Amino acid sequence: MSDRLTFAIVEADLVEAVIGALSLLVPTSSGNLLLLNASKVRLSVSESWSDSAQPVGLPQLDRPNHCPAVRRGLAHLAEDLTDPLAVRCPAHPIDHGSVLCVPLLALGQSVGVLHLARDQSSFTPNDQWLAWRLAEQVALALANARLLRTMEGLAMADPLTGLYNMRFFDPLLEQELAVSARDGTAVGLIMLDIDHFKRFNDTKGHPAGDEALRTFADLLRSSIRESDTVARYGGEEFVILLHGAGLDAAAATAEKLRAEVEGLVVVLGPGRFARLTASFGVGSTVAHGHDRTTLIGIVDQALYQAKELGRNRVVVAELTAPSPEAVSLPRVRSARAKRDAETPLPDAAIG
């Protein structure tokens, strides 16, 4: 079982490993394994089994501490369920035989509970010890798997806005472009940048800038389709992948977002408000091909042109290859930041 836990990839593999070991080491007539949800307010069944011809129910406990083992953090044995004084567990509603509840504890925290039942006999001290040792190993494996999943999620998300970051978006775009080339479907790409954001931070303070980024990200997240993906690409720059969008559709989406951003009010505190504008560059595989670096460079150059033309506008990328400066994204962004710093900021932009 330890070997199987080591090579397990998902929680279902971990559960399957412990159930297989239990069937050999602690045979039972029925049982189930329940796991706590992320908020630790509900126990839901992960696996159930029974020797009976009757189908196994799928119990769920909305109050986990109703299980004696979870409440005490110790194994609980009800040797004879016909005894009127026996403490029963609502997660395993049988009226005869014996039930053993074993909590799944990892680093002092409960991740679930294992319920074992026998129709005719009770559980010996050796059975209890084996069940406890099995529960210990699978609990630690489950906790590690969940921690790894959480860490992977954090690595792919921007902590300030909650949007995906560049580390997530670039491989996704690469994959979607490959699918687009294979299936002949379109992928639209929008790059957008908050106008005069450095000056916004300088005049209103970095906490206000953080709030503006969060509000801006919330607007983008709520304004795109569920099938599309938005990510923070760095600083005040964002990128949106549009499934099935040609150049016209992507441009229409960008113009819709531009108008929504222009009407956005950022609440900075009691009696403090601010407005934002953004510039947009638009491209699509239909017009610009399926190479990721080239497509991003073309769209980024269109965004650069939107800034040059006065900001708060949408520029659709031309059907030409980008200049070397456009493909070299760090240099383009550096030049853009320098230009923003040197350009006078209209009063309306920071009002």
What does it look like?
The chain has a 6-stranded antiparallel β-sheet with strand order 3-2-1-6-5-4. A 5-stranded mixed β-sheet has the order 8-9-7-12-13, with helices on both faces. It has a two-stranded antiparallel ribbon with strand order 10-11. The chain is built from 13 helices and 13 strands. The chain has helices at 2-7, 11-25, 68-72, 125-155, 166-183, 197-204, 206-223, 247-262, 285-288, 292-308, 324-327, 329-342, 347-350, and strands at 30-36, 43-50, 60-61, 76-78, 98-106, 109-118, 187-194, 229-234, 237-243, 265-269, 272-275, 278-284, 314-316. The longest helix is centred in the middle third of the chain and has 31 residues, at 125-155. 46% of the residues lie in helices and 23% in strands. The radius of gyration is 29 Å and the shape is elongated. A hairpin with a 2-residue loop joins strand 5 and strand 6. By secondary structure, it is α+β, with helices and mostly antiparallel strands.
Q: Separation of termini?
A: 64 Å
Number of helices: 13
**What is the share of helical residues?**
40-55%
Taking all Cα atoms into account, the compactness measure Rg is 29 Å
For the largest sheet, list the strands in their spatial order: 3-2-1-6-5-4
Rounded average pLDDT: 83
Which class do the helix and strand fractions yield? alpha+beta
- Strand proportion, as a percent range, falls in 15-25%
- What kind of sheet is the major sheet? 6 strands, antiparallel
Task: Name the poorly predicted regions.
Answer: 53-58, 321-351
> Can you count the beta strands?
13
Helix and strand run: HHEEEHEEEHHEHHEEHEEEHHEHHH
